[in-house]
Predict the 3D structure of the following.
Amino acid sequence: MKIIDLIKSPKPTLSFEVFPPKTSQNFESVRAAVEEIAALRPAFMSVTYGAGGGTSDFTADIAADIQDKFGVPALAHMTCVSSSREKVHAVTETLKAKGITNVLALRGDLPQGFDLSAADYRYASELIAEIKERGDFCIGGACYPEAHPESEDSMTDLRHLKEKADQGCEFFTTQMFFDNSILYNFIYRARAAGITVPIVAGVMPVTNAAQIKRIMAISGSALPQRFVRIVDRYGSDPEAMMQAGIAYATAQIIDLFANGVPAVHVYSMNKPEIARRIMENVSSIIA
Ligand code: FAD
């Protein structure tokens, strides 16, 4: 099943993201959590890919497990900036052999002091073109409603985003955001820039206060006052923060679907409890 067909179907698409184990020692515990999430039967699941190669071998294994055991379509992430052409070719062959036809093509974060001029791939657009040539894949890419942190400005970032669509990217998944008006504004600007492919909204349920610092470091996402108040008030009470974080993410998701966003991708962080509670909260909305 091609993910683009799910996104384009009239039914709202709710999907979850999981990450593979870092080492073979925790493979089974990660697999058990991933399987619990797959058993909830989301529209599809994505499996992240370690930029430095640390976890990359497990991405295809976990993705194949999701598809083969649960019939849930899997979206395998793939990064390129730290990879040779040979490595990218080998990974695409592995995906094909395991029946994985959906790929989220990413550049990956730049390792410190990295010499981009010596890399086989400098940008995700180059990886998209390469994957397109190597098989009948449905290819997605990443986009940033608040602009990619390295970009000069949001218009330049959108120009590069359009290059990814021009190379064959069929949909984009957004970086997390905590204020839906940021997403609506971004979609408006993307359409004005000639980007016509569907945009999947990425939502992160924040269920513990420590996550916030990491989120700010990775994404630079703006935090609305009403969200900051929730973390200030409930951050030191794990159960209350869990309840409030799920309620906040649920409200975001319902508002996105109500405003015609076709697909929401939840950063469920290998936490079946979070995935289950979100699924329950929107069960009639996605039915
Ligand atoms: P690109 O699209 O290549 O963009 C990177 C930067 O280069 C941007 O600033 C862009 O404006 C600029 N740019 C693009 N083309 C050009 C050009 N021709 N000339 C000059 N500048 C250009 N990381 C992982 O390691 N593993 C994962 O599984 C993973 N999954 C992700 C999933 C999602 C939904 C998102 C949003 C991010 C994910 N990331 C992941 C993080 C991602 O790898 C980083 O954000 C990375 O820094 C950028 O990747 P990209 O594919 O967006 O890069």
Notes: The pocket of flavin-adenine dinucleotide is lined by residues 48-49, 51, 77, 79, 104, 106-109, 123-125, 142, 148, 150-151, 157, 160, 163-164, 173, 175, 202 (CB under 6 Å). The mean pLDDT is 95. The chain has eleven helices and eight strands.
